[in-house]
Amino acid sequence: MWYNETMEKRIVAFDVGDKRIGVAVSDPFNEYAMPCETYWRRGSRDTDAAALAKIAEERGAGLIVCGLPVNSDGTPSVQTEKTERFIAALREATQIPVVTEDERYTTVEATRDLIQGGVRREKRKNSVDSIAAAYILDGYLSGRKKEKKSMSMKEESNDYEEDNIVELIDEEGNTLRYEHVGTIEYKGEWYCFFTPEEQAEEADEDEGEEVAVFRLVGDEDNETLEIVDDDALLDEVFAEFCNQYENSEDADDAAALEPDEA
Fold first, then answer.
1. Which of 105, 141, 171, 199 is deepest in the core (most CB within 10 A)?
2. DSSP annotation of 2
């Protein structure tokens, strides 16, 4: 097993509605959002706030992001005030920091995606809110990445981004520095992709970079990284990684990678 001392706590997002609250959680490196469950409100604001605080704690969250509904022009609405009162109750119910994120159009986008995916109307209620929460979390994570990138450009004179570097401890206790390339979910499990720091810094544009693939194992309070040594599974996971990144801004970087089968 390999360990990562620099792994952050996950981020949980809530899409707060009058009847239902969608829940989403980030991946272990806080780069992607995954829809989880839908909490059905019980009528008492304090009861619901305590229930959400428990959900966040069980997920090992270090931060909570709540969607804040506003009018299309950005001005507050009646729903804004109701949500702000709920967020105030949530802050009273937990010691985890709570921030807000603009949630305009997230439910509309989630519903549209479900319709396009052929999900029947009666089943949408069970998933639309959690998908909307994932959109809220994606928006927050994207903003955080842009902020970090902007700060990095101001503070560093080189083009190499320290933000993506993690320190992994191998089975013999050696500390190795890797660049985190990405994390995906495949068949219910999380897989993380890394390249050695030296290779990332010295990579030749004409040569592919080897990438190490790890499976994330353990619960959220005690997660470790396990090398994928099944060649067939490695090929499947790497193909899925390339597929997910094909239309992303990192598509060119992903195309230059090669799975490390050593």
1. 141
2. B
Q: What does each C-alpha distance from 81 to 86, 140, 239 come to in angstroms?
A: 9, 21, 46
Parallel, antiparallel or unpaired: strands 189-196 and 209-217: antiparallel
C-alpha distances out from residue 15 to 41, 96, 97, Å: 12, 17, 16
Reduced to 3 states (helix: H, G, I; strand: E, B; else coil), residue 155 is helix
Domains, the chain: 9-149 (3.30.420.140), 162-259 (no CATH)
pLDDT in tens, 228-261: 888 899 889 888 888 876 655 454 455 555 556 5
d(CA 71, CA 78): 9
Torsion of CA 86, 88, 94, 96, to 10 degrees: 110
The model carries a pTM of 0.60
- Report which of 96, 101, 95, 97 is spatially closest to residue 83, judged by C-alpha positions: 101
Let me know: does 133 contact 67? Beta carbons within 8 Å: yes
Quick check: 118 and 97 in contact, CB under 8 A? no
